[in-house]
Amino acid sequence: MAGLIPQDFIDDLLSRTDIVDVIGDHVQLRKAGKDFQGLCPFHNEKSPSFTVSQTKQFYHCFGCQASGSAISFLMDHNHLDFVETIKELASKAGMQLPENTDSNKPRVNNDPVYSILEQATKFFAVQLRQHSTKQRAVDYLKNRGLSGEIAKAYDIGYAPDGWDNLLKHLDNEADQKNLLIKAGLIIEKESENNKPKRYYDRFRDRIIFPIRDYKGRVIGFGGRILDKGEPKYLNSPETPVFHKGRELYGLYEARKRCRDLDQIVVVEGYMDVVALAQFGINHSVATLGTATTTEHLQRLFKATREVIFCFDGDRAGKRAAWKALDLSLPLLKEGYTVQFMFLPEGEDPDSMVRSKGPEYFRNHKNFTALSEFLFNSLLLKADINTLEGRAQLVNLANPLITKIPTGALRSLMQQRLSKLSQLEGQAIEQIIPEVAPPAEIPQPRQRALINRNQRLSRTLVEQAIHIILNHPGFANEVDFDENLVELADPYLPLLLELLRMVKSQPTISTGQLLEHWRGTETLIALNDLISGKKELPDEAIQTEYTGIITALKKNLLKQQRSAIINTSEGKITDRVKNIYKRPENK
Predict the structure, then answer these.
(1) DSSP state, residue 98
(2) Which of 53, 133, 157, 382 is most buried by a 10 A CB count?
(3) Whether this model's pTM surpasses 0.70
(4) Strand-pair partners of 338
(5) What is the number of alpha carbons within 13 Å of residue 569 lying toward its C-beta?
(6) Among the CATH numbers 3.40.50.620, 3.90.580.10, 3.40.30.10, 3.10.450.50, which is that of 7-104?
């Protein structure tokens, strides 16, 4: 179950939704036999490996292994959360969400803080157009090369000089001051000598950059001082809706301007983001005066498969890049990459895009791959011309490579370390454990898993699950012996649950089945088990399924016989022991 939306509502919604229509709005599909094919929207490919089954209400890419229902597709392709996706599909199907869903309960989304922040955004925008001192701000933006179009696209505003401009404009109700304080817009100064409390605007004489969340709601502001002074940049404080270590400036605008983000460039400041946008680089974001965090990376990898960190080439920039590298390692699922761009000393993204043009930020020759940056940095600390240095390199690289999830990148990193250290691959594998710790996030939802048929043969129970997932109707056509529950197989409870669901809903589709495990680790196993060999005719698959059930019954008989024999042998052994324990035999 996902949230409090009833599962029967989700099943009904999917029964009224045609996955071909949903995906066809975003991907050009063509008929290929009984299914549809197209170029996968989740990775770059020249020949179609993306298949959509109208019968199963399920999609699968044989290239990147992305798969799921219509709900999964919209969540991943349009970067929506679960409730947003259900709302969109329900609207198209003419269905009303049940009143008891969590989407209809009062949530932080309805916090009046959002309203006051939106009012402040409009106030700052008006000041940039109408205030008597607006020209200072306008001249500053023009000198930085920004157009009115870009300023409007990012809702850039102006906070005039003065202690209480915003306060006077918005403080028209008794409880408004408390709301302004809660939103981080005004500051309360403690009273002295029994004098009344004083309140003043947080942002004064600054260019204002509204910060939006993924839904486009203003959650805070960044202010850039117009003249010399400190701090140069001032952010909203932590509030109920704004957390600096989680948000990224420009991410909403990037997703709005580029529906499919092939890559995202992470820069340091607000002006860098808007300056790059001025030159057509619409896929940049900025951290909010903080170092990169795991939550930042989680947000980024939900939106794209390639993240490029843009840092100064000095020592501080390299330190920031190393931290970003370290945090990225556990999240590097198959098909996801992190690269680095180090700018010349004294340059920033704003100056570079003006001197070198936008192509500088699109040219992969200017990027440094994560693997290259990692090994180059470690080689500065370890002299591989000596045995001691090579051992030091292994000791430094080991904990880093261990963080990478098992897959091609991890294997290649091990090979590179093996070559540099001159240790045989087997020796490296003994030092670096085979299994990496799991990544912190379950996102992106569609994981690039290796087909089980490519790494080991499936058990009979797994083969049965594969068939039921792809052909739920077969569950009602072949008798399943309930005694099979005694079989020792870790996947048997999952098979039994699938069979129970299909028998209770004979017309259930593959897509509907999967949605019953939305948000659980079981869904990963199901997505893994659903893929496999090329489809056979239905008759052949049904015959195969019947054969699997027959084989399972034979295995159960063998298991029962072994248990009887072991029990009998145990009794005989005990009898023999008892004989030797008799006094006359001592």
Answers:
(1) P
(2) 157
(3) no
(4) 307
(5) 6
(6) 3.90.580.10
Torsions phi, psi of 158, nearest 5? Answer: -140, 130
CA-CA distance, 388 to 399, in Å (whole number)? Answer: 18
Give every CB contact of residue 72 below 8 A, 6+ residues apart in sequence.
59, 445, 446, 514
pLDDT tens per residue across span 6-31 = 888 888 899 889 999 999 988 989 98
Q: Which parts of the chain have pLDDT scores under 70?
A: 1-4, 99-110, 172-174, 191, 259, 425-457, 477-488, 521, 531-536, 538, 563-586
Chain centre to alpha carbon of residue 472: 30
Give CA angle at 106 (104, 110), nearest 5°.
105
Decide: residue 208, CB within 10 A, 0-12 exposed, 13-18 middle, 19+ buried.
buried
Instruction: Please tell me the predicted confidence (pLDDT) of residue 558.
Output: 77
Contact 335, 64 (CB under 8 A): yes
CATH 3.40.1360.10 fits 260-445, yes or no: yes
Six token digits for residue 584: 């006359």
The answer to whether the beta carbons of residues 226 and 206 sit under 8 Å apart is yes
Cβ atoms of 376 and 410 closer than 8 Å: no
Residue ranges of the chain assigned to CATH 3.90.580.10: 7-104
Q: Which CATH superfamily is domain 452-561 in?
A: DNAb Helicase; Chain A (1.10.860.10)
Handedness of CA 228, 229, 230, 235 (dihedral sign): negative
Of 273, 270, 265, 274, the closest CA to residue 366 belongs to 265
Q: Which part of the chain has CATH 3.90.980.10?
A: 109-242
All CATH 1.10.860.10 domain ranges of the chain, comma separated, are 452-561
Q: Which CATH architecture has domain 109-242?
A: Alpha-Beta Complex (3.90)
| 241-254 burial code (b ≥16 CB/10 A, e <16) | bbebebbbbbbbbb
